[in-house]
Design brief:
Helix content is about 25%, strand content about 30%. The strands form two sheets. It has an eight-stranded mixed β-sheet, with helices on both faces. The radius of gyration is 17 Å and the shape is globular. It has five helices and eleven strands; from the N terminus they run ββααβββαββββαββα. It has a domain at about 15-145 and about 195-205: Aminopeptidase, CATH 3.40.630. The longest helix has 15 residues, at about 120-135. By secondary structure, the chain is of the alpha+beta class.
Length: about 210
């Protein structure tokens, strides 16, 4: 049985329900259900491809997602963003625990399909997770973003930090869109793996709560 989730709603900001995007389209943010496991996995594959990884790197199966997200002891929750009933993004998150601060939320993945980028959908998903964290009394919300760059034929991912011979100025591309997106939301970069965190103060600032 999936964990119960409550969340306030603020049009075009956060919350479960239908919002109007920057481009005037309607996007619905909702909690995923067991019937969505195929859709979730498809979006995970989309994220892997965006991160320059082959589809085969996604080892999790629909049965595992069903068991772990919607079984007797669910270990994650997932938000879906939909336009006219078609999923165009997701945010997968779960509790983690700080021995100094207590219960926190960790955002494992946030992804919006290329066709819907620039509409504010990613912000809606992230802010809705933040609103859930705030309502549930979590002390912080954390996540990581890849800081990859392409040097010739080499792709250096955040999961594999190692030295390379190619000079940094020769790199053709870095994951700046995602990093700039998170920075604009007030997230704090912690180290070179790009750990990002919203504490209690930043959560309330993000949500516009005094």
């Amino acid at each position: 049985m999936a964990a119960e989730t409550s969340c306030p709603f603020k049009e075009q900001q956060y919350g479960l329900g239908t919002h109007t995007t920057k481009k005037g389209t309607k996007v619905t943010i909702r909690l995923a259900t067991e019937a969505d496991v195929g859709t979730i996995r498809k979006l995970i594959v989309g994220l892997a491809l965006y991160e320059k990884e082959p589809e085969e790197t996604v080892e999790v199966t629909e049965d595992e997602l069903r068991r772990d997200g919607f079984g007797a002891q669910p270990v994650f929750r997932c938000l879906l963003a939909e336009v006219e009933g078609v999923a165009i993004g997701f945010a997968l998150f779960f509790y983690n625990y700080s021995t100094w601060q207590g219960r926190c939320i960790y955002l494992e993945d946030l992804y919006v399909d290329e066709s819907a980028r620039g509409t504010g959908t990613g912000t809606l998903l992230l802010k809705t997770v933040a609103a859930i964290a705030h309502v549930e009394g979590c002390k912080r919300m954390s996540w990581q973003a890849l800081d990859w760059f392409v040097c010739g034929v080499l792709v250096v991912m955040g999961r594999e930090r190692y030295a390379i011979d190619a000079p940094r100025h020769s790199c053709e591309h870095r994951n700046t869109p995602a990093l700039d997106f998170y920075k604009a939301l007030g997230a704090n970069r912690l180290d070179s793996w790009v750990n990002l965190r919203l504490g209690e103060k930043e959560l309330t600032q993000l949500l516009g709560i005094s």
